[in-house]
Amino acid sequence: MRLGEVAVAKKKKTTRSAAKTPAKRAPASRTKRSSKAVKKAKNARTTTKATKTTKGKTKKTKRTVGVATAAAATKKADMVVVVSSDRPAAEVAGELKNAGFEVGEVLHAINQVTGRAAPSLKSRLRGIRGVEDVSEAHPDFNIGPPDAPVQ
What we know:
Blueprint: H1 3-20, H2 28-31, H3 35-43, E1 45-52, E2 58-65, H4 67-74, E3 77-83, H5 89-98, E4 102-107, E5 112-117, H6 122-126, E6 131-136
Antiparallel strand pairs: 1-2, 3-5, 3-6, 4-5
């Protein structure tokens, strides 16, 4: 092959590969619904109500209910669970997990378990043997520098 023939061969290869490339597709995020939207749609139901208008005709109206409650049920908050010294924190963390609490960390030194759960689970979590208290975490807590004046 001569130098000129190599350049022609390279051009032919690039045109062939360009012809084989498939057409562009829409990104997956545009074609699929998010998992939260699917959960909301599954929990929602449509009700139909027949009402009479001022002219005596019957009018049907549709209303979707259950979407807000489904979103509220899936919303989780950061929580701190204080464990009594009667039981090991690891055992209590296992029972918390079985009750629906997402365990983040088990702090053995201070007998606390951090994680996430729906606020509606607080009473169930408090009922577990070895749990002293369940409270929502407050991320805006700040002690301040050591040389700061006492407030």
